[in-house]
Each structure stands twice: as structure tokens, then as C-alpha cells.
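User: Could you check the structure of this?
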Amino acid sequence: MAGLRAWVLGVCSMLAMLAAPKAFGRELKVLVMGDSLSAAYGLRPEQGWVVLADAKSDRYGFHNASLSGETSAGGRSRIAAELRRAQPDIVVIELGANDGLRGLPLKQMGENLGWMIGSAQAAGARVLLVGLRLPPNFGAYAGDFQRSYALIAQRLGTGLIPHFLAPLGLERKWFQADNLHPVAAAQPLLADEVLKALAALPPR
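Assistant: Sure, the predicted C-alpha cells are below.
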């Protein structure tokens, strides 16, 4: 009888694991610190790339701390509290676009991103830095802006997505009326891009 009871309990445990694979398969917590591109601006929250990536992956569980309009300075001011709250294994930093659109000094942006990266690494998390590109009418500043992400990633040992919106190209259909924020149909492409970059991160 005891043997039969143990067998039944074992089968029930296996069935429970099969019924809820995400609960057992998720090992890595991902904190996303981003701006409107990660905060599902103009969309329902469930349409944004963060929620979609969370739904697609059994390996990662996402905590989205992104805010529309956020700058690198804003991210720097919030990172410590978010690290304590989420206790992540990986931090995705998608910030800087609002700095660039305002023409803020790149040295200031670099210092803020560096602070965030250092804080995340000190907390034991790996970092994926998400780069962005400014419109060409920003001239030489646009080129320096995009290169700054590669320099920061190389110097501080993070993963890097050089240009977050690269999968969308310049096709107007992928963007909302402001021609800045991706539409709902584009969000799965961004989710796939981030998941691919997370999988390529070197182990801690």
C-alpha cells in the first residue's frame, strides 16, 4: 500500500510539472529599464514587446520597469530601487533615445548608463545594453550617439543590441502616426530580437 501511494504521488507530481512548465522552467529574472519603446506607448500593455517576450519564453521571466519619456538620468535615479525590488539575473537597459532627441551631452548619457550598468553588475546581474539610432538630420551627433553604445558595451562588458529598431527598417507600416513608436504588429519582431540577444549573453 505504501509503495502504491508513493507511486501515485510521483505520477501526480510529474503531471503537475507538465501542466505548468513555465513555473518550473523559468530560471532567470529579467529587469527591463526602458523608455516608451519598452513601455508599450500607444498600445495596450499586453501588446508590448516585453509582455510578448515573457509569454514566448520558458527560460526568462520579465519585470518591466520602463517609463514613457524616461531619460538615462531618470533610469540612473531608479535603478537601485528596481534592483532591490526585482532581484534580477539580467538587466536590459533600453535608454538614451530621449537624451539624444533633446541633444543632451553624450558624456552625460554615458556616465548615466555606466552607473546603471555598474549597479546591475554589482548586484550580480548580467546586462544587455540596447542601442538606438537618431534620425540623420541630427548630423554628426547621430553617428557619435550610436557609436557610444558600442563603446560603453565594450568597456563595461555587456551584451549589446546595436540598433533596437533595425528589424523594422524604414518601412512606414511598422510605425505609429508619430513615425517614432512601433505599432503592435512590430512588437513580436522586437521581442524576438531581445530574446535572441539574451540567449547570446555569456554566462556569469
